[in-house]
């Protein structure tokens, strides 16, 4: 389960101060890669090239889509196309 799924679940339960982190990954050469801050790793590399970091939003497994939520909420749903 991803840290984003856990954070979303904690937020929905009202536990806003909870954070889940992956920690670091130790690479084959002993270097530590921190997934929460990849720029530290990139800045420490001896070989430098231009790069960009982009946040990619992915869906959580087992999380219902908006259309599934609409079906569960029924006609009074705020997500139904008629209410937009």
What key phrases describe this protein's structure?
84 residues, mainly alpha, two-stranded antiparallel ribbon, 3 helices
Brief synopsis:
This protein is mainly alpha-helical and 84 residues long.
Overview of the molecule:
The structure is a single chain. By secondary structure, the protein is mostly helical. It has one domain. It has helices at 3-12, 38-44, 66-73, and strands at 24-26, 32-34. It has a two-stranded antiparallel sheet. The chain is elongated, with a radius of gyration of 19 Å.
Molecular shape = elongated
Secondary structural class: mainly alpha
In helices, the fraction of residues equals: 25-40%
Radius of gyration: 19 Å
* Domain tally: 1
Largest sheet: 2 strands, antiparallel
């Amino acid at each position: 389960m991803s840290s984003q799924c856990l954070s979303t679940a904690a937020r929905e339960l009202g536990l806003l101060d909870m954070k889940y982190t992956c920690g670091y990954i130790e690479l084959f050469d002993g270097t530590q890669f921190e997934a929460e801050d990849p720029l530290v790793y990139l800045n420490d590399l001896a070989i430098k090239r231009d790069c960009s970091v982009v946040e990619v939003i992915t869906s959580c497994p087992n999380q219902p889509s908006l259309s599934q939520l609409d079906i569960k909420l029924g006609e009074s749903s705020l997500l139904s196309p008629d209410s937009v």
